[in-house]
Amino acid sequence: MAPRKNAKGLSPVPSTPARRPSSAASSPEKPPGPLSITISPEEREVIKVNNYSTSELKNACDDALKRYLSRPVLFKQIHLHTDVRLALGWAGVFTAAATGLYGWKTDFEKSKPGVWVGFILYLVLTSLQTLYSYFVEGDTIFVGRRKTFSKRIITERITISSRTLPVPSSKLSLKPSSTNSPSYSLSINYVQSTSGGKSLLAKGRTHEAKEYSAFFDDKGVMAQEVFERWIGELVEAVMEGKGA
Q1: Three-class SS state of 160
Q2: Of 118, 164, 190, 196, whose CB count within 10 A is highest?
Q3: CA dist 55 → 159, 162, 174, 230 (Å)
Q4: How many other CB atoms are found less than 10 A from the CB of residue 26?
Q5: CA–CA gap between residue 76 and residue 142 (Å, rounded)
Q6: Which long-range contacts (CB under 8 A, 24 or more apart) does 101-104 make?
Q7: What is the pTM assigned to this prediction?
Q8: Rounded Cα–Cα distance for residues 21 and 24 (Å)
Q9: Tens digits of residue pLDDT in 5-48
């Protein structure tokens, strides 16, 4: 039996069932995590520190973390805290220099009011720098941001703080080991949003500590691959909302 024609004498085109979009196409593309990007051994430089200096151990870990997460495909580091501290510090230096120059070129009695103003301003700037470092910046060592596009612009922001946890008095001994080494403690906050931060997509937080001896051998040489794997696992866990 011939197909029925429409009013214009044209045969209708057979309809095909609409395809359901696959889950991969309907869900936004997941931003790449740190573990998905490999680093060749040639890109690393040997890092060696004094195992008995907790400041050297922490600084080495902080610097390695910044290098690892601030690669172009990952997060762009935001230097706001450093810029604010530098601005306040240089403002204090210029104030002190200008005050000293004014007092040197002006008669002592006439320069007293100006010198007092400069001195008070210098104290205010120095105090602001100290208060900012203590109350605002705190233990923050890395603030990063990344923008990706998957049907919409997705903005990610990660903030990481670090500090050293001392060895319990019950485990103190002369030689550092895996059981009596101070620990490197990290706190990670992660936020994923869109529409200029108006729409929250995901957020996570985690806190974990690990002994420095897990990242440095007896000679103080850093096992960068071990450290980067630990950092990558923590960051990816918090990105997936698995952090505690």
Answers
A1: strand
A2: 190
A3: 21, 12, 18, 20
A4: 9
A5: 10
A6: none
A7: 0.78
A8: 8
A9: 444 444 444 443 433 333 333 334 567 788 887 787 777 889 99
CA distance 191 to 85: 25
Q: Look up tokens 């949003």; give the residue.
A: 193
Neighbours of 243 (CB within 10 A): 20
- Backbone φ and ψ for 82, nearest 5 degrees, come out as -65, -40
Q: How far apart are CA 147 and CA 124, in angstroms?
A: 38
Edge-to-edge strand ranges of the sheet holding 153-165:
76-77, 140-149, 153-165, 183-194, 199-211
Cβ neighbours for 34, distance < 8 A, ≥ 6 positions apart: 68, 69, 74, 228, 231, 232, 235, 236
Length in residues, the chain: 244
Cα Rg of the chain, angstroms: 29
